[in-house]
Amino acid sequence: MSSDKPLCPPPDANPHSPNFAIPLRATDCHAHVFGPASRYPYQDNRSYTPPDAPLAQLRAMHQKLGIERLVLVQASVHGTDNSAVLDAVATDRKRFRGIATITEETSEAELTRLKDGGICGIRVNLVDRGGNPFSSLDALTGISERIRDFGFHIELLVHVESFPEIRTLAESVRVPLSVGHIGYTKATAGGIAHPGYREFLSLLRDGYFWVKLTGPYRISAQDIPYSDILPMAQAVIAAAPDRVVWGSDWPHVMQYRTMPNDGDLLDALAEWAPDATQRQRILVDNPARLYGFV
Fold first, then answer.
1. How far apart are CA 247 and CA 160, in angstroms?
2. Catalytic-labelled residue, pool 128, 223, 242, 249
3. What residue numbers bound the domain in which 40 lies?
4. What's the 3-state SS for the chain?
5. pLDDT band per the 50, 70, 90 thresholds, residue 206
6. Is residue 2 domain-resident?
7. pTM for the complete prediction?
8. What's the chain's average pLDDT?
9. What is the pLDDT of residue 1?
10. Which residues contact 183 (CB under 8 A, 6 or more apart)?
11. Is 110's pLDDT higher than 60?
12. What is residue 5's predicted lDDT score, i.e. its pLDDT?
């Protein structure tokens, strides 16, 4: 394994309970599992080297927070080998779902295997090295037709403010699209004032895109409670209240500032969505519709 990929610090091992009542069937819609690398190796073309972060450690954190359901997302370091996600989802098919990475050449048989293994969407990472297996956005539009019959959606990791093709993509892809990290527009780039972010909010109001309230530390210039992104989080909730979900982004890879406590991340959600009915939608009702929980 190459040694020039930065080793990420581990997550906070002592998460505290959140300061508000977590509803039953609450869902963490964005988390990863890693290791051991001998069993789930990392591709050379990657941006980082994660710490071992097994499912048991993730679920212990969830137990402390009161989280019952989980969506595991394929990390870019694993390329198109979805084994780590599939093996973890297989341990609890009722409460777990997965997001996989595929290519233009992925066969119908493999898509069927992924569907049978609890996969409900594919991830396209346009940010991290090695994350995007498609030759073009036209190819992504084409693959959307292939995955449609499987009930899959597409999860994008993209800086929405610097993606001028975003409306064209939204209008051409015939499956649901979700975007991580509140759109991945940094507060220092202008946040809600950026014209590209305003276009994203317009697309939300027009019925395009789901949004994940994840990774605030990736776009904030501050530490907890990430006050500079409060307007962005509240804007996406207002624009698409029935298409917003929350995720921990555990184990917070490539976080070299203050490592967030996962209890603090849930407490930040309470600031973004101070009404309990809003949080019920974000943590329970919306994830059930997008990921097929019953």
1. 19
2. 249
3. 27-291
4. CCCCCCECCCCCCCCCCCCCCCCCCCEEEEECCECCCCCCCCCCCCCCECCCECHHHHHHHHHHHCCCEEEEECCHHHCCCCHHHHHHHCCCCCCEEEEECCCCCCCHHHHHHHHHCCEEEEEEECCCCCCCCCCCHHHHHHHHHHHHCCCCEEEEECCHHHCCCHHHHHHHCCCCEEECHHHCCCHHHCHHHCHHHHHHHHHHHCCCCEEEECCHHHHCCCCCCCHHHHHHHHHHHHHCCCCEEECCCECCCCCCCCCCCHHHHHHHHHHHCCCHHHHHHHHHHHHHHHHCCC
5. very high
6. no
7. 0.95
8. 94
9. 45
10. 159, 160, 161, 197, 200, 211, 232, 236
11. yes
12. 85
In this prediction, residue 75 carries a pLDDT of: 94
End-to-end CA, the chain:
41
Which pLDDT band, with edges at 50, 70 and 90, does 2 fall under?
Answer: very low
Q: Please report whether residue 17 resides in a domain.
A: no
Residue 128: active-site member: no
Could you give the percent of the chain with pLDDT greater than 70? 97
Number of domains the chain is built from: 1
Determine, yes or no, domain membership for 14.
no
- Residue 239's domain is classified under what CATH number? 3.20.20.140
Reference 34, options 49, 15, 17; nearest CA is 49
* Residue 203 falls inside a structural domain: yes
